[in-house]
Amino acid sequence: MEKILVIRYGTIGDTIFASAFYRELRKALPEAQIDVLVDDIAFEVMQKCPYINKIFHINGKYKNYFAYIALFKKYDTVYFLKNDRFFTMIAFWAGVKNRIGFNIRRNKFLTKTAPYNCDRHEIDCYLDLLRISGFSVENDKTELWLDKINDSKVREITEIIPDKKVLIQAYSRFQQKNWLDEYWAEVISYLSNNIKSQVFLVGGDKDIQNYQNLIKKVKSELELPPIDMCGKLSIKETMSLVKKMDLVIGIDSGVIHMAAALDIPSIMLHGPTSLVRWKPRSEKCIVLSRHFSCSPCCLQPGSKKYCKNRVSDCMEFLTPDIVIETFKDKFTLAANKVV
Asked: What is the pTM of this model?
């Protein structure tokens, strides 16, 4: 039996993008042992993945050098979906026969490589690693796998709410992805007062104060105050909450990619990142974007990581009326369902 290890750690979005890789790899090798090496974020997303046999945690690097050597020795093939010089060296020293990753400078010691550049979607880059391995790719759709226990917990929160449910993710760890609070306040007021929708707010612990400030801006004028779930849900619980929504609205971050993978209608407010590389792969996701000559500027090789402005021009010029008109034009919330 062939034994394969896949390494992919990092953001929620990147982990969701990799779901297509795991599915297509399992289709190609239904009898193989396919294990993954991931961090805590990816572990939560992937716990119920049906295409994986075993999940290993990344626990530091150099201090656990010999443990990684022992682990890698068990495998015939290692796929590097994450560019990581340390682990490519480990695979080389462990004598792994097939070491497959991307053709970039820091990825030394690989036996087979595929191109990796800004002109190709991240999902397609991952799937290229299968193509150069001689496997066919039939489907590039992303997936998420829900946990029944967490799904039941979230159901207790949502099933007692008769109103239409809209989830909002307003903040990212990258400041330049964020929209203005006063813009969010206008959209939340419209959803609550005009559409009679129950708004849910989600985010991590670091976003708690931001959401508290946002709620203060709108609370007094809302018929239906938002339900603030920021910092109260695990990643798995957030996935289950997204599944219960009629609509998701958010910036370019993990929750929007959850909605795409779960086939939930969504509106993404896009600014400085590359749509070529990171656009959600879903026909139900509408992307609103205002292109500038400097776009995209965020996280692109050879360019500055941050916009010179604290609030990116491309986000500031994406005004609330654009979002509301898109909502009116594209979505009808009726009978607790987006149609």
From this structure: 0.90
